[in-house]
Amino acid sequence: MNSTQTGDNVLMAVTGTPGTGRSAFLDAVAVRAEQHGFVVRRARGSRLEQGLPLGRPGPARPEPTGRPVALLVDDLQRAGEPALTRLTALLADPEPGPLFMAVAVCEGEFATEMPGVQEILSAADQVIRMGPLGTEGVRALLGERGIVLADDQVHAWTHATGGNPTLIISLLERLERLERLERLERAGRGASVPLLDIARAQPAPWSLRSRVAAALTGHPESVGRLAACAALLGGETETHVLARLADLDPAEGDAAARALIRLGWAADRWTPPVLWDCVREAAEEGISLTDRDRLHRRAAELLHASGAPAERVVPHFMEVGPGDWPEAAQVMRETAREVRRGGDDALAIRCLRRALREFPPDSPQRGDLLAALADVEQNVDTSAMLRHVGQALPLVNAVQERAAVVARVPLTLFLSAPHAASEMLEQAGAGRTEPLVPTADPVARAAPKASETSQASELGLRLEARVRLSRLGDPAAQASAVQRLRAVDPGRALDPGPFPGPGTAARRELMAVLVFAGVLGGRLPAAEVADRTRWLLEHEPASAASEYTASALTIACAAVAEASEPARCWLDTALETARRRDDRRLRTAVLSWRALTAVHAGRPADARADAREACAVAPDPARDPAGDSLGDHDWLTVLSLTSVAVETGDTWLAERLRDRLAQGQGAGQPVCGLALRVLQIPLTAERELPALAADLQDAACRAEAAGWCNRTLFPVDVWRAPLLLRLGDPEGALRLLARACDRARRFGAPAALGRTLRMWGTVVRGRYALSLLAESVAVLRESSNHLELGRSLTAYGNRLRAAGRPGSDEILAEADRIAEATGEAALRRWIASQPPSAHGAPPCGGVPVAGGVLSDTERRVASLVALGHTNQDAAEALGVTRRAVEKSLTRLYHRLDVDGRAGLVPAARRMAGRAVFGSGVLAERL
């Protein structure tokens, strides 16, 4: 501009690929020219006006005021020959006065190579090439629209758009059209669904699509065909593959790819992705359905032949009808196997369902695919898996192959779905005389022939385990299972002959079923159950944990047999596996199982924390339609959480679990139905208690008859006793407790027996009560469950004191020592408790003390100090000042009647321990 003001003509050219900001640059030049006193005239090339003077800008010179003229021409390549000739003449004529001319030319458009355009470019005094924005430029452009993103998200925007300003603005326009964007961000979706993904999911603006179409106009047809095929393929693809899909010879394909590169569109690398999204939308709308099917079929063939990843091949197969490609089923089967190894079960299911469309309903190949589909659906949709196994079995001819299909069904589903299990076993040939299939009485079946292979033997064990588990409701089957178990020594094989060794999965499955059957029938003592489950857990890899395998049976048995330590170690490893896989269903199951073992081991604080976390991470169908609700297939999860809610008196957990069960489809099933009624006990009005009591008794009988739940594993009788006491029927409650006590004596687990004796002793009166409580204390001294010992000592000492008997002070002092030790774990949970917003649960509630309750702040201050934290540590943990902590301590010293910090520490621990003692079934009677 300075040169123009001194009398010289100046030509500046602005170039760049489509969307890089040439027009915006000319706008900035116009503002600057006006500031320097120029008369600014604007023009734009248009294909519709190529035979006219350029945009009718009028004569550029002379200017009556004598001011210099700035002529700014956008899209010069679209101007016609008359306009280009006129511009050349203006620059060559020095008479009328100085002229500053700035022209913008789009690189890559076909008309850019016209001689008139190239002549003007070659005459330019200065050429400025506009390029893509870097990461900081993208950040700044987003910031202008009020969007501030983390570094990784800014990098994602830069990669997706190639730094092209037009593409970035098109994404921002899509976001602005979303009326619910602010509500999505408030709901937290901004963290889980990036804004970039939300924007790309919306259709491209018409303005962008028209610019893309304009960039391709004038190019040979081959360029448009190659661009459309590259967009439809998606992802990086070699140029020769694209050329074959577009029906171009290699030379035509290379020429078309070079033309796209000049536009800044890399067809082989599929960059920038947002641009190719737009091209794909336009291409899909511009072709017929027949051509679209042909392109997708050809694309699938070419991608598969070139070794493209499965996630790129599958979408094209999904668009093609059955029968169009003979190899489609085999390719989809191989793809499903590959993606399942990578952990993408959803894509594997899509592949197999698509492959099924290639065969008629009665095809044997269809049976094989249905079995493979059911195998993938094990941990995704158990109902669909059982349905597909039932459809596959009639299509499989050989008995051994049918047995193999049934053996792949997860073990515990034969317990929770007895009707479907019976049908599957019947179709598989259970009851026949073939060696692989057990007879009606599996114990009496003939020994396997010496010629049987190890693989066939293992299949036979798996099928036997499933047959036995499906018949556990029959007492004769339970007795038969124990006879089979008695012949088993962990150091040798199950039967003579070439059966798998003790470390095989098939042997562990059968062993777990036999032990579980012995516990259900009350035919195995706790000591033997503990030994068996310890052996099983030592040999079962926790890294292969699944909610429907034999490990669920083993953990249930280990919990009631007080083999808590090996179970806890195994579950810790399994939980890490679930977290590493990001498997929410498995994580929910393992957390609930760990909570069950903790509550049976006398660690209610740990049980409560695990149960609450399990509820928090469980898929919620109300919020996530893809998530499955809890049902009878999750029987151990449901009953574990129910046990924790009842035994710890956690009303929040009970209400949360009850709501989840009531919303799900399993509310009428035996397991969920029983759990719902148990959870309803503390929430039922007095006038409705008789109906609930009868309903609960009926649900317990139906559940036990189904063969998976008995009163040793899940003490429904003990849970019903408080209900009968509320109804004024102490005799009925005593009958339940007496029956539970007889059952616990036969089983021989000290904690369960001592607990039942303590409950019985708190319901009766007089000398008999003292006798029961004394026996409870004696039994529990043989157990590792110190919580139950502390409860029994408290109940026994209080009744001795009320009766004026000697020895109460010593017994209560021992109970206080246990309370102090137990309270330390409770204090850790109290200070680690989350605020209500974390999982929707209250922290812990008030803790009863003499003269009232402690506030939440006082409770947490007492907990922190009792665990050895300084006042400053407590202030930082609570987010308050040190002075506030000191004031809370002063109030605590007065309310608890202790002398300073040295007295507060044991008092706080005893207080927490007593609060734990007072929670659970009939614990209020201590």
Which tags fit this structure?
926 residues; two-stranded antiparallel ribbon; 7 strands; elongated
State the total count of DSSP E strands.
Answer: 7
Rg for CA atoms: 39 Å
For this structure, the quaternary state is: single chain
Overall 3D shape: elongated
Strands across the major sheet, in which order? 2-3-4-1-5
- Low-pLDDT stretches: 54-61, 180-192, 431-452, 490-501, 833-852
Number of helices: 47
Main β-sheet: number of strands, strand sense, barrel status?
5 strands, parallel
Helix content: 55-70%
- Computed structural class: mainly alpha
Q: Into which percentage range does the β-strand content fall?
A: under 5%
Average of the residue pLDDT scores: 81
Distance separating the two termini: 96 Å
Structure description:
It is a single chain. Helices cover 62% and strands 4% of the residues. It is mainly alpha-helical. The chain has a five-stranded parallel beta sheet with strand order 2-3-4-1-5, with helices on both faces. A two-stranded antiparallel sheet has the order 6-7. The N and C termini lie far apart (96 Å).
Secondary structure elements and their pairing?
Blueprint: H1 2-5, E1 10-16, H2 22-35, E2 39-44, E3 69-74, H3 81-92, E4 99-106, H4 115-122, E5 126-130, H5 135-144, H6 151-161, H7 165-177, H8 181-186, H9 189-192, H10 195-200, H11 206-216, H12 221-233, H13 239-245, H14 250-262, H15 273-285, H16 289-305, H17 310-318, H18 328-341, H19 345-356, H20 364-376, H21 382-392, H22 399-407, H23 413-416, H24 418-428, H25 454-470, H26 475-486, H27 505-520, H28 526-539, H29 550-560, H30 564-581, H31 584-600, H32 604-617, H33 635-648, H34 651-663, H35 670-680, H36 689-705, H37 716-726, H38 730-747, H39 750-763, H40 766-780, H41 786-803, H42 808-832, H43 836-839, E6 847-849, E7 852-854, H44 856-866, H45 871-878, H46 882-896, H47 900-917
Parallel strand pairs: 1-4, 1-5, 2-3, 3-4
Antiparallel strand pairs: 6-7
